[in-house]
Write a structure and sequence with these properties.
Layout: H1 2-29, H2 48-58, H3 68-71, E1 83-85, E2 100-102, E3 105-106, H4 109-120, H5 124-139, E4 147-150, H6 155-161, H7 165-176, E5 186-188, H8 201-208, E6 212-214, E7 224-232, H9 236-247, E8 252-260
Parallel strand pairs: 2-8, 3-8, 4-7, 7-8
Antiparallel strand pairs: 1-2, 5-6
Bound molecules: zinc ion.
Zinc ion (ZN) binds next to helix 3.
Length: about 270
């Protein structure tokens, strides 16, 4: 039995080597494909700055290509439209009224195509790219915070997808802004339905009510904390996560999402 298992390992290493060699050969003859639209990428020279940044953060080169057409179509909001109120439907007796949300992209066009590609194409690299974009937008805002935390996925969904896209977006954004990162602070204490499957705002709020807890490993008393998610629709998920942080003693919570599909004026973030 011992011999058989050693032989199996040898075979799989050998096959892996062959596969790598073929991949290298194909890379020489096939054009790079855009991670968003799938067309041939024509922007290798424009990625040198990003490659350097990625290597600083992760210690390896990125495996990502985005074509010029997609790159130039990210529809960034005007600076004065990026801050809004987190809840699209403010509640009576809201535990954290006036919760501010920063959201630099509209969830349309390329941003609207890119985010689903992360989830359903399992493209962690694309999430990290969006995180770097988000991070450079936040940089201009001069946000000072004690911690940046991603909205957690349920263990079931994490196992299904293999990674949490909110975490992959939040981590480079935290590094670019020198804000300490904590991926184990917020926890899912209740499994919820996908918000995107629910149409009604009240139903969405009820779905995520009590969904989040704060890990006993952390004492957040008096802290300013930034929560990051990929996409915001009604704002109910981020609002619920913020409520959990306030209950645990945080003194200020700000919400950030890469993209969203609504805009509410008059937020006062600071
Ligand atoms: Zn493209």
């Amino acid at each position: 039995m011992m011999g058989a298992s050693v032989r199996n390992t040898d075979v799989s290493t050998f096959q892996k080597g062959i596969r790598e060699a073929f991949k290298d050969a194909f890379d020489l003859i096939l054009p790079y494909r855009c991670a968003i639209c799938g067309n041939a990428s024509d922007t290798e020279d424009r990625f040198t700055g990003y490659n350097r940044l990625y290597k600083d953060i992760y210690g390896v080169d990125p495996e990502l290509h985005i074509c010029g057409k997609c790159l130039s179509s990210f529809n960034i909001l005007e600076e004065d439209k990026r801050w809004s109120l987190c809840l699209s439907d403010p509640r009576e007796n809201d535990a954290c009224p006036g919760l501010a949300l920063y959201m630099p992209f509209t969830y349309q066009g390329i941003a609207g195509r890119a985010v689903p590609r992360i989830k359903f194409g399992k493209k962690k690299e694309l999430a990290r790219f969006l995180g770097c974009l988000l991070g450079s937008c936040i940089y201009g805002e001069d946000i000072r915070a004690d911690l940046m935390v991603p909205v957690p996925l349920s263990p079931e969904r994490l196992a299904e997808r293999g990674f949490n896209q909110a975490e992959e977006i939040a981590y480079p954004a935290s590094r670019l802004n020198d804000i300490p990162f904590a991926d184990d602070l917020l926890t899912r204490i209740k499994d919820t339905k996908r918000q995107s499957e629910l149409r009604d705002n009240t139903v969405r709020s009820k779905n995520v009510a009590g969904a989040f807890g704060v890990s006993g490993l952390w004492d957040v008393t008096g802290m300013t904390i930034v929560i990051v998610d990929d996409v915001v629709t009604t704002g109910a998920t981020l609002h619920e996560a913020a409520e959990a942080l306030y209950k645990a003693g945080a003194s200020k919570v700000l919400c950030i999402a890469f993209a969203g599909n609504r805009y509410i004026k008059n937020a006062e973030p600071f």
